[in-house]
Amino acid sequence: MAKKYKIATLGSHSALQILKGAKDEGFETIVVCPKSRVKLYKLFGVADKIIEVDDFSDFSKVENQLISENAIMIPHGSYISYIGHKRVEKSKVLYYGNKKILKWEADRNLERKWLKNSGLKLPRIYKSPKDIDKEVIVKFHGALGGKGFFFVSNGEVDFNRKITRHEKDKDYIIQEYIIGVPIYIHYFYSPITKKVEIMSCDRRYESNVDSIGRISARDQMALQEIDPSYVVVGNFTVTLRESLLPKALEMGERVVKESQKIAPPGLLGPFCLETCLTPDQNFYVFEISARIVAGTNLYINGSPLTQINYDEPMSTGRRIARDIKQAIETDQLDKILK
């Protein structure tokens, strides 16, 4: 029966991992991408079919073809960013996950309400630039990989100087900057098994803030005209201390439980909590990604944690395919296609 369905995704972000995981579970695969990326997916050979579009924004033109292929679309950050959560919600293509949750991720005010009601520690949000009394980071709405984010160190004057470069971006939040170690925790929740799993963790390499950080404080003073940027360019591995895992697991379980109240039947599949771990071992949660994140690309063959849980390589992409396969075999597809 699984052969009746194909797994599809947009050719970006974590597509290689998603398609590889789907093939490992015996599915035929489809990738939708512009001509400029066709060579990449042919090179890696993980896509059985490549559907070419002029631009990602033309996705709606191939929706009927995907429907005729009985394809299940797997969302990721680029899919949400390029297509937009409102268009995704209207799409008729089979969709892995709960579309109702997308607006809670896309709107930072709703997202904060979700996380706060989950009982998590959150950084302070400033209502006005006039209230800034310490270091803050300004973030824009949506899945943009850190694009446009900027740091403010000298109150309202510094904010007003920097915000002029973002005149078109009116929707933003001013968030307290927490000093600690950024940790991105990758989770998976299946309504089939009814379990929250911690799959892996990562840190991000961001341009140009990480590059500036490699320069001595003395030399940084000579670069005062360069504003730090937080655009993600890559990821590297982190293995969380075992003593911190119970707290991390509890956070994931709280988020899932609250999601079942705000957007029934709730969050399902992969998700990620963006946290900062302070010296007193408290996790502050900045945001949630209600889908697979690019940091999981580090673990195509699995992480130390999935190696304990599974007797075979288990990436997050493969875990998605395994969830779909189990749902098909037990006639529970309605639980994961929302």
Question: What is the percentage of strand-forming residues?
Answer: 25-35%
Rg measurement, Å: 20 Å
Q: Helical stretch count?
A: 13
Mean pLDDT: 89
- Count of DSSP strands: 14
Question: Can you tell me the number of structural domains?
Answer: 3
So, CATH architecture of the largest domain? 2-Layer Sandwich
Order of SSEs: EHEHEHEHHEHHEEEHEEEHHEHEEHH
The spatial strand order of the largest sheet comes to: 3-2-1-4-5
Residue stretches low in confidence (pLDDT < 50, at least 5 long) are: none
Distance between the ends: 20 Å
Q: Structural class from helices and strands?
A: alpha/beta
CATH first level of the largest domain: which class?
A: Alpha Beta
Q: Describe the biggest sheet?
A: 5 strands, parallel
| Molecular shape | globular
- CATH level-four homologous superfamily name of the largest domain: ATP-grasp fold, B domain
Proportion in helices: 25-40%
- State the CATH topology of the largest domain: D-amino Acid Aminotransferase, Chain A, domain 1
